[in-house]
Amino acid sequence: MRTTAAVALVTALAAGCTRGSEADSATTVSNAKAGCPAVLAEAKKAVKAAEDVNAPWNGPTTGPRAVPAKTIVYVAQSMTNPGVAGAAEGVKEAAEAIGWKVRIIDGQGTPAGIQAALSQAVAIKPDGIVLSGFDPKSTAQQVAQANAAGIPLIGWHAVDAPGPSTDPKLFSNVTTRVQDVAKISADWVISQSNGRAGVVVFTDASIPFAKGKSDLIEKELATCSDVKVLTTSNIPIADASNRTPQEVSALLSRHGTKWTNSVAINDLYFADAAPSLRAAGKQGNGAPFNIGAGDGDPSAFQRINSKQFQAATVPEPLSEQGWQIVDEFNRAFAGTPASGYVAPVHITTADNSGGKSSWDPKGYREAYRKLWGK
C-alpha cells in the first residue's frame, strides 16, 4: 500500500467534515460546492452518456458477406472466469447465426493448461483460433505454430489495446480501451461525489496492465482539485480474498468518514471488502460508494442490484464482443482488414441495470446479421 504523489496536488476535504452518521457524511460531501465546476460538469455529461441503455448501435455498417463452412476454436483461459465464459457464449451464438462450427477448449486457468489447450487447438487445424483472457506471450511457441500454419488468431482481452497486433501477431484483439474505462470510472466518482471525495484505489501492481489502469484512474481523479486519493491499496488479485478484508478494516480505522468512494481495477475486490464494511456497521447503499473498473461479472451486478457495497461497474459487453469476434474472423477469411470497432464504455448502476446480471446493448445482432446476409 502506498500514498500517491497525487495527494500533494489536491486539496484536503472540507475542514467542516465532522463525526456522525455515514449518511450525514455523504450528504455533506455531495452538497458541498465543488472546487472543480468545469471538470464536474464534464464528468456528469460523460457519466450520463455512459449510463444510457438505449444508445444506438455505433458498430461497423459495412463488411463482407458470410464466408461459408468455417470452424473456429475458442481457447479459454478458464471457463470459470465469468468474462471469458460470457464472451464464449456470444461467440457460440454468433457462429450459429453465421453458419459456422465452434469448439471450446478450456485452459483450466493454469499456464500449463492454457499451453496444452492452444497446442490442441493448433493440432485440430481450424480456420481460426480465439485467444481468450490470457497473454499470448505465455504461449509464444503455440502462437508461432499457428502463425506458421496461417491460422488467423483473434484475442479477447489478450493484449492491452484493441485492434490488430503485430507482436504477438493477432488479426485483431477485442476489448474496450483501458483509457476509456479508467476515465469513466474516475468521472463517475467525481460526478457521484459532486466533486468532493476521499478515494481509495484498489489495484494489483504486479500486473502492468492493472497498474497502468489505476495510474490512469488517479490521473483523472486529480483533475478535480477537491477529490483526494487517500490511498492506493496494492493487493494482488490472487491474494484478494485473503488480504482485502484486513486491508479494508485498516483503511476504515485510518480514514474513517473521509473515505467516501472507492475505485477498483476489478469488481472482485468489493466482494472481499463487503464483510469488513458490514462488520464496521457500514450500510450497503452508503459510503464508501464503490465502482469497479473492469469486466462487470454477474456477482458485481448482484451486489449493485441489491445495493450491497457496490454502486456501479464498467462492464464489458460480453455477448456483443463475442459477435464481434466472429465478424472479425469473417473479415479475415474474406481477405479484408479488421473492422477497427471498439465498443464504447458503459456504466451500470441499480437504476439502469434492469435487474440483469450482465450488460448487453441493443441492435448489434441485427446489424451483424445484415452485414453477413443472414
Concise synopsis of the structure shown:
Helix content is 41%, strand content 13%.
β-strand amount:
5-15%
Seen as an oligomer or otherwise, the chain set is: single chain
Largest sheet: 5 strands, parallel
Coarse structural class: alpha/beta
Give the helix level as a range of percent: 40-55%
Strand order of the largest sheet: 2-1-3-4-5
Mean pLDDT: 90
The gyration radius over C-alpha positions equals 22 Å
Residue runs with pLDDT of under 50 for 5 or more positions: 1-31
Distance between the termini: 53 Å
Number of helices: 12
Q: H/E element string? A: HHEHEHEHEEHEHEHEHEHEHH
Explain what you see:
- This protein has helices at residues 22-31, 37-50, 82-98, 111-124, 140-148, 178-192, 208-221, 240-255, 268-279, 298-305, 318-334, 364-372; strands spanning 71-76, 101-106, 128-132, 153-156, 172-174, 197-203, 227-234, 261-264, 289-292, 312-313.
- The radius of gyration is 22 Å and the shape is globular.
- The protein is built from twelve helices and ten strands.
- It has a five-stranded parallel sheet with strand order 2-1-3-4-5, sandwiched between helices. Strands 7-6-8-9-10 form a five-stranded parallel sheet, with helices on both faces.
- Residues 1-31 have low confidence and may be disordered.
- With 374 residues, the protein is of the alpha/beta class.
